[in-house]
Design a protein that fits this description.
Layout: H1 4-9, H2 26-42, H3 49-55, H4 60-69, H5 74-91, H6 97-103, H7 109-120, H8 124-131
Helix pairs in contact: 2-5, 6-7
Length: 135
């Protein structure tokens, strides 16, 4: 018969169990999360932790743990994906700032402006001027 101390001694060093079988390694999980976020943001949909977790077939808590194991967080990945898409959208002369805001999942253009100031240190209009090729 086994007792509780037998179970404890089976734990790997550091006290953490390895991820369950079938789970991708941390870098692959991070990449899958980036793809899920990119798809949602690029489609102009609000990107929530719940939606991404559902798409990856895990619960939100598991999503958070797996991203922490990869050295990041949902917010950091979403911010990086938004930054990449923002630069692409701002370079497009066909999109207004309101359209860029909608495509990135912000509730209104002023939210995009605040985010750009925090992320890039300047408002989206100035960023647009800096990244567009001069004619």
């Amino acid at each position: 018969m086994r007792n509780a101390s037998d179970h404890i001694s089976e734990q790997p060093p550091g006290g953490r169990s390895p991820p369950p079988r079938g789970f991708p390694p941390a870098p692959a999980f991070r990449s899958a999360c980036e793809d899920a976020i990119r798809d949602q943001v690029a489609d102009g949909r609000a990107c929530s932790r719940e939606d991404v977790a559902r798409r990856l077939c895990v619960n939100e808590r598991t999503l958070n743990r797996r991203l922490a194991a990869a050295g990041t967080s949902f917010e950091q990945i979403r911010d990086a994906v938004r930054a990449s898409l923002a630069m692409r959208y701002l370079a497009s002369p066909d999109l207004s700032l309101a359209q860029v805001s909608d495509r990135l999942g912000f509730s209104e253009p002023s939210a995009l402006s605040r985010w750009c100031r925090r992320r890039f240190g300047r408002p989206p209009g100035r960023l647009r001027q800096e990244i567009r090729p001069r004619a």
